[in-house]
Amino acid sequence: MKKISRNNSNFSLIVSVCLMLLAVIACSNDDTGGITDDTGGTDDDDPVVTELHAAFEAFNTEATTIYLDGSEIVIETTGLPDHETVYWGEGNDGYRDEPDVRRTPSIISSNNNEATMRVDAIPGLTGSTVATQLGTVGIAVSGSAIFNDQEGGGDLDQAAGSLDWTGAHIGPGVYHYHLEPKAFTDDDENLVGILLDGVFLYGRQCNSTGTYPTDLDSSGGHTSITQYTEGEVEYHYHIINELYSTTGSYLAFAGPYQGY
Question: CB 3.0-4.6 Å disulfide test: which of 46, 123, 176, 182 passes with 147?
Fold first, then answer.
């Protein structure tokens, strides 16, 4: 390669200008063709969440502490519901006599219900699905856990007799809902809670139509406005309006998740 002579000022100037132009072009494009912004990101980057979704205003503040941590939302909960149930135990202010409930041995006040759940602030709605597992699949607005349609590895029918008036029990572990939690959503559009994939769960009716949605996917989800989205559409779940087995009520959520 020939060296550029320092004393050839005109030629050197032309080369310098060309090199500068090449540097500008190279710096303005990344390897994927996206245009960088002032912070070094690309136009393909996910949006940054800087404040909590308005739906979190519906959560029981006495039971939950909710905050942003980078790209995740942290939900810390005592797990203690803000409504009556036989599972508070006699003598508790929240106790409700339910003689037809075959109560499990534990009561809420003597059980460790505390939990911390971290979810993506922006659900990963890529079209792939993930099956729910035993245990907590979400946190309800009351502060208590949401479980799926299984109990101890078997069908929920075997434990249906122990469910209280709002579709919940202790068995095993924490107090949790399997069915439509009538304490805060009873054939309406109310917010039920948020699931592990970061998608909100609502009651059987939809705010966008005022009735039961007819376009739900296999998870009970669809995209429409809600009472918390200020006219913008958003993917969310509903309790599916189909009676579950012999319980006389509706499953809270059976899955699969859509937001992972």
Answer: 176
